Amino acid sequence: IFVLDTIPCLLSPWSEWSDCSVTCGKGMRTRQRVLKSAAELGDCNEELEQAEKCMLPECPIDCELTEWSQWSECNTSCGKGHMIRTRMIKIEPQFGGTACPETVQRTKCRIRKCLRGPGMEKRRWKEAR
């Protein structure tokens, strides 16, 4: 009886690993090799591709803010004053992400002129001194 020896797989060397699939953070990379012997000469169950995880420096995280609040009431009941509005930081910047812009804005407001009693302002001012 004539027995045919199975021919071992002839494989090319593994290629270099590919670049990571991402430019930052967690990704995957692969490498391949090629079957050099004809498949009909024997069973070849060797893997021809491998994949593995790769990790690059963390991706930048930009500052994220809530929407602006409504403007506050004017801080005076007459004359010139100011109002403010605020917003909160939802996500602090990390790994070189964009910094947070202002979280408080102030604007002038003017309510009707204050009514003065004759000499009231001057007298108060002298007392304060």
UniProtKB/TrEMBL annotation:
<dbReference type="InterPro" id="IPR000884">
    <property type="entry name" value="TSP1_rpt"/>
</dbReference>
<dbReference type="GO" id="GO:0031012">
    <property type="term" value="C:extracellular matrix"/>
</dbReference>
<dbReference type="InterPro" id="IPR036383">
    <property type="entry name" value="TSP1_rpt_sf"/>
</dbReference>
<feature type="domain" description="Spondin-like TSP1">
    <location>
        <begin position="63"/>
        <end position="114"/>
    </location>
</feature>
<protein>
    <submittedName>
        <fullName>SPON1 protein</fullName>
    </submittedName>
</protein>
<dbReference type="InterPro" id="IPR051418">
    <property type="entry name" value="Spondin/Thrombospondin_T1"/>
</dbReference>
<dbReference type="Pfam" id="PF19028">
    <property type="entry name" value="TSP1_spondin"/>
</dbReference>
<dbReference type="Pfam" id="PF00090">
    <property type="entry name" value="TSP_1"/>
</dbReference>
<keyword id="KW-0325">Glycoprotein</keyword>
<keyword id="KW-1015">Disulfide bond</keyword>
<dbReference type="GO" id="GO:0007155">
    <property type="term" value="P:cell adhesion"/>
</dbReference>
<dbReference type="InterPro" id="IPR044004">
    <property type="entry name" value="TSP1_spondin_dom"/>
</dbReference>
<keyword id="KW-0732">Signal</keyword>
